[in-house]
Structures are given as structure tokens and as C-alpha cells.
Design a protein that fits this description.
It comes from Weissella paramesenteroides (Leuconostoc paramesenteroides). With about 70 residues, this protein is of the alpha+beta class. Helix content is about 50%, strand content about 15%.
Length: about 70
Amino acid sequence: MGLTPKKELELRDIRQRLSNSLHQTLEQQNGAVKIRLADYPNLTLKELISEIEDSEHSVVDINETYLTFN
């Protein structure tokens, strides 16, 4: 079963947002980036982690509200 169009668009959006925020944040802080899970309601935690890891970053912390990666 394929992804719904809405989920596919959200995956594209997260890739773009991750790329942009990582580039800007890592340049400024040279550290970890934290995203709010509620900002991605149509993606599962597993999908978010997969997208982050596909972007050649690693997840360093997960809690009920945020996911932190570098």
C-alpha cells in the first residue's frame, strides 16, 4: 500500500524543513537540533526518525514532546 498524497507532501515538507533548519541551526550553534513532534501530526515517530537518518543525521533523544538530533 502506497502513501497517501497528504503523507507524501508532508514527507517532502519535513525533508525541506529538516534541511533548512539543520543548515541554519548547526551553523549557528554547532550542536543538536530539537523538533516538536506535534509539528508533524501525520507522521509516525518511526517515519520521522527514518527521514532524519536518511538525511545522514542521528537521533540523540526522544521524549513525549520533542525529538533531538544532530
